[in-house]
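User: For my dataset I need records formatted as: sequence, then structure tokens, nothing else. Please produce one.
Assistant:
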Amino acid sequence: MMKQLLLIFFLLCSRTSSQSGPAAAPSDPTTTSGQSQSTPPVLPPSSVPLVASGPSGSVEITSILKKAGKFSTFIGLLKSTQMDAEINTRLKKSNQGVTIFAPTDTAFSDLQTGTLNTFTDQQKTELARFHIVPSFISMSQFETVSNPVHTAIDGNTVGFPLNVVGNGTHVNMTTGVVNTTVDSVVYSDGQLAVYKIPQVLLSQGILRPQAPAPAPLPPKVKKATPLSSQAPSTPTAASVHPSGGTGLPRYPAAAVSVGLAVLAALSFFL
């Protein structure tokens, strides 16, 4: 009887030990020292374009941005400044290509309220051109691009500096006013490259204070004419010949008589 009880006790102990496994690893990321583990690094922008490239010669910038979505404000800026037509024309006639940094709708909404409405037409054109580079730049080429990058503002890099630095996976941009990065590739076909950026590229040249319109000139005050110059001149009396010619001036009759008497007296003594 004692043996049977010992056998049953042994079997129960064996079953309990087999059901218990190794302790599970703690799910809490906190280390034994009480410090949290480092957060994973930010993933680089995807090199896969958001919009697939189309057939050659059929590329239109506004169509690409519409397909990608979330670029309505930038599309409106390109249309109002007629830069969309200029980009499409350049893609058809130039072999250098075009690179565009496209701010999202959120980027424009992050601007100070009414910023675009306060811009003049010239400022809006400069803003659109500042997001355009008149040459194709791939993600890998940002590592060796010359700074400052010449944008479509006639190569003006003084008031519109754009410096771009890439390391193969990340692209950082600075204008002296804005620091931002490239989020993703919207489109790339070897001729046109469109990159999504989370901020609008502003520069001192765009934000410069506008000179006020010149005040109208005061009316010119006429100088007073001297009274002596206003007196009419007295013409010398002259005899007019019946033929119309002007003869010698006429003298009074008394003067003529005196002259004749003087001549007669002189002839008497001679």
